[in-house]
Specification:
Elements (H helix, E strand, L loop, with lengths): L3 H18 L7 H8 L3 H12 L3 H18 L5 H7 L5 H12 L3 H12 L1
Helix pairs in contact: 1-3, 1-4, 2-3
Length: 117
């Protein structure tokens, strides 16, 4: 059995992996498990127990945070931001974005434009 330090290190490794691979539309727990040489179910369980959210939810959070950063930096193409954040389907991206931010990416862009004028 792993000690707490081992689990903490594993959580850091998972977070780093997600941070480095979030833009990959083919990101999967399967590949995460293979790359880290752990069972995906084990990774999922440990991560959720220690972080409070599942790996996929964490992935969405990282992607949406990155999208917000890009939009604040002046990116105005929702489909471009969507692709760069790992969502090949911009409609799905807009849905996930709205769930996270309470507004659509287009409304987010509009708000930024209004604040800067």
């Amino acid at each position: 059995p792993e000690n707490d330090q081992g689990r903490t290190d594993l959580i850091s490794v998972i977070q780093k992996y997600v941070d480095e691979h979030f833009s990959d539309p083919d990101f999967s727990l399967e590949r995460l498990g293979n790359d880290l040489k752990y069972n995906k179910k084990y990774l999922s369980t440990v991560f959720k127990r220690h972080v409070g959210v599942g790996i996929v939810d964490y992935l969405h959070t990282v992607r949406i945070q990155h999208a917000c950063t890009m939009l604040k930096q002046g990116f105005t193409s929702v489909s471009d931001v969507s692709l760069r954040c790992g969502y090949p389907d911009s409609q799905y991206f807009s849905k996930v974005f709205k769930q996270a931010e309470g507004i659509t990416p287009s409304e987010y862009i509009k708000n930024i434009a209004e604040q800067s004028s």
